UniProtKB/TrEMBL annotation:
Protein name: Lipocalin-like domain-containing protein
Organism: Spirosoma utsteinense
Origin superkingdom: Bacteria
Length: 132
C-alpha cells in the first residue's frame, strides 16, 4: 500500500514539474523583443498608401530607393538610403513598446514574418528582411 502511495506522489510531482516547464516555455514565446532587432540590419521594402497625401514624385523616389535599417543596442540606429548613385545615412531612435516599434517616435505595429518583420502604420507598410 505504501508503494502505491509513493508512486502516486512521484507521478503527481512529475506532472507538476512538467506543467511548470510547459508554462515557462509558453512564457518565453511572448511577442517581439529588443534582441530581435539589436545589432542587426534589415533591408526595407515599402508599400505606401498613395491616397494619404504623398505626392507622386516622392512616391516614385521611395519605390526606386534602397533602404537598410541598422539597429544598435542603445535604442539608436541608422537608416542607409540609396537612390541611384546618391546615398545618405539618417540616424533614428527606436524603442519596442508591447507589439509596437517606435521609430523616431512614430508607432508601427510589428508582426513577425517568415523572413523578417512587417511594420504597419496608417499610411505605410514596411517589410524588414534581415540581412545575413
Amino acid at each position: 500500500m505504501k508503494t502505491n502511495q509513493t508512486n502516486t506522489a512521484r507521478s503527481r510531482s512529475l506532472w507538476t514539474v512538467s506543467l511548470g516547464l510547459l508554462a515557462s516555455l509558453v512564457a518565453c514565446e511572448v511577442g517581439i523583443r529588443d534582441l530581435d532587432f539589436e545589432s542587426k540590419q534589415f533591408t526595407a521594402t515599402f508599400n505606401v498608401d498613395s491616397t494619404l497625401g504623398i505626392d507622386s514624385t516622392s512616391l516614385t523616389s521611395l519605390t526606386g530607393s534602397k533602404a537598410i535599417y541598422s539597429f544598435s543596442k542603445d535604442g539608436k540606429g541608422t537608416n542607409h538610403i540609396q537612390m541611384g548613385m546618391l546615398s545618405k545615412d539618417i540616424p533614428f531612435t527606436w524603442k519596442l513598446e508591447g507589439d509596437s516599434l517606435r521609430i523616431d517616435g512614430e508607432p508601427y505595429a510589428v508582426r513577425k514574418q517568415d523572413e523578417g518583420y512587417m511594420l504597419k502604420s496608417d499610411s505605410v507598410k514596411i517589410m524588414l528582411s534581415q540581412q545575413p
